[in-house]
Amino acid sequence: MNLSMNEEEKIQNDGLNERAKRADKIIRNPRKYKICAGCESIVAQKINLCPNCHAYRFVESESLVVAQAQELGQREARSVLGSDFE
Q: Taking the model in full, what pTM does it have?
């Protein structure tokens, strides 16, 4: 699949915009989230096992959740998810 440079930039910008929206949601309500100690993903507070790396230890500090959301919301995704292997 050959995409023009403009199409690639649009896809990348759409991805960054979506991540920024999710980060904003987390920043507005950090008590509903925690950070996986294994892969540093942000997950819902109710999760007991990280869906990305299957770790079971989490950082629950609201200030660290906000800081992590701010960082992740400003860069493109780097995680490899299980769905990437399908």
A: 0.74
